[in-house]
Specification:
By secondary structure, the chain is mainly α. The protein has 32 helices and no strands. The longest helix is centred in the C-terminal third of the chain and has 27 residues. It starts with 5 loop residues before the first helix and ends with a helix.
Length: 458
């Protein structure tokens, strides 16, 4: 239809039927990866973007089904976005044809992997129809597409604010049980994303969502477990929610996921455990009640998966706030393992901030400061101060402050010119970083002064 007037086509019954058959053929062909590549090079999206403007239902269903099938490919997604198709997908969510709506939702689910598409869905008023469509629970295929679309568009924080006003989370919570796994995966993912907004966490908690999420931790589907753990971790940033999660045995179940052979399940569980510890008044006792829990945490520091390492180091940093638990971590060999990691991952900006944070927290107990120093931790931590990542150099400064309470460590800091980096941090806007940097410099100077006095005394 590239050179044909759209309005004329609408009136031509034979042409409409021909186009419908062609669209059905393309829909069937699009299920093959090889065919998708050929259709893309033949300008498929350009043609479909014209067909979709016909707004003839019999043509729209196979056209949007083709778009849904092809939008799995990132290059197709870009072409769909550039072709102005997103506004039509948003518009057709209002259709009474559930098959068409299902295909639209699934296309949005795939396309909303990209930032621009998530914004366009909001701009073309696609969010409210998605929320309304949740009530059609009897159509599983459509519900799967709709909840998937909600999950992906909710990655955008602005969309989450709209969903808050539409009370989306209250509608999602009942779908956390008695639904097919693919729907619950999408619902848990949606709740996890919506929980970026504190008001949404309150909606989830008041609707009884936390207990349903905790119950799902007993499942076996890795993707569902990852999304549920993610959702619980976000909700646990609110103290009231953290209390409920612990009350219904959520922390123990999350800890049990650390035994999973799936690294993504392990890391998502570890990340969720962190706010559960941080926002629990009796966190120390809660952790101690988990038999073998601390030994398991230390063993996971030997993982070769960077996401697992980052999340477990973060968990160690939270656990170590309790001295008794830190003592047990120390007995299980946390110091030598972290000492190896600080060197082994010196080139990984993402992981090394969490390693430095864990080291700083673990310095508080016994002779850990001295042992860290003897195992060569100070020199690489000084190098961490040069990082451009705020979290990395702040964690390194905090760790060095605690290490500087051991004189021998101050000598190494001085030899490696830590002071020139720390001086700049004293003027930082972050007062915690200011104090850590200033305290570290003071300890280095005190040692130098003591040495001068000792020399002059001789």
């Amino acid at each position: 239809p590239a050179n044909t007037n759209i309005e004329v086509l609408k009136e031509d019954t034979q042409a409409v039927e021909l186009l419908r058959c062609a669209a059905l053929g393309l829909c069937s062909l699009s299920k093959s990866k090889k065919n998708k590549r050929k259709m893309k090079s033949s300008g498929l999206i350009q043609h479909l973007s014209k067909l979709i403007t016909l707004e003839v239902e019999t043509i729209l269903v196979p056209v949007v089904a083709t778009l849904s099938e092809c939008s799995v490919d990132p290059e197709y997604r870009a072409a769909i976005c550039e072709g102005g198709i997103i506004q039509y997908l948003s518009k057709f969510l209002e259709s009474e044809n559930q098959e068409l709506v299902s295909h639209c939702a699934k296309a949005i689910f795939h396309c909303a992997e990209d930032d621009l598409t998530r914004t366009l869905i909001r701009q073309h008023n696609g969010l409210e129809p998605l929320v309304r469509l949740i009530k059609f629970t009897e159509n599983v295929s459509m519900l799967d597409g709709v909840t998937g679309a909600i999950w992906k568009v909710a990655i955008d924080r602005e969309n989450c604010k709209v969903f808050k006003d539409l009370k989306l989370c209250e509608s999602l919570v009942p779908l956390l049980h008695s639904q097919p796994e693919e729907v619950m995966i999408n619902v848990a993912g949606s709740i996890a994303e919506c929980a970026k907004i504190p008001e949404n966490i309150e909606q989830i908690r008041k609707a009884g969502g936390l207990t349903h999420l905790v119950n799902l931790l007993s499942g076996t589907n890795p993707t569902l477990l990852i999304n549920v753990a993610h959702a619980l971790g976000k909700c646990a940033t609110e103290p009231d929610s953290a209390t409920i999660i612990d009350k219904y045995d959520g922390v123990r179940l999350l800890w049990s996921l650390l035994k999973s052979p799936n690294p993504q399940v392990q890391s998502s569980a570890a990340w969720a455990i962190c706010p559960c510890i941080d926002n629990n008044k009796d966190a120390g006792e809660m952790v101690r009640s988990l038999v073998g829990g601390l030994e398991l945490i230390v063993s996971l520091l030997k993982s070769d998966n960077r996401e697992v390492l980052a999340s477990i180091c973060s968990a160690v940093a939270n656990i170590a706030k309790d001295e008794q638990n830190l003592a047990v971590l120390t007995d299980h060999g946390v110091v030598p393992i972290l000492s190896k990691l600080v060197v082994a991952h010196a080139g990984d900006e993402y992981v090394k901030g969490h390693i430095a944070d864990a080291i700083g927290r673990c310095c508080i107990w016994g002779n850990n400061r001295k042992e860290f120093g003897s195992r060569g931790v100070v020199k690489p931590l000084v190098r961490y101060l040069k990082s451009k990542d705020t979290f990395v150099y702040k964690a390194a400064a905090m760790a060095l402050f605690h290490l500087s309470l051991e004189p021998e460590n101050c000598v190494v800091m001085h030899e490696n010119h830590a002071k020139q980096w720390l001086v700049n941090m004293v003027g930082d806007d972050d007062w915690i970083l200011q104090e850590a940097a200033a305290g570290c410099i003071a300890n280095i100077r005190h040692l130098a002064l003591a040495n001068d006095i000792s020399k002059s005394g001789r």
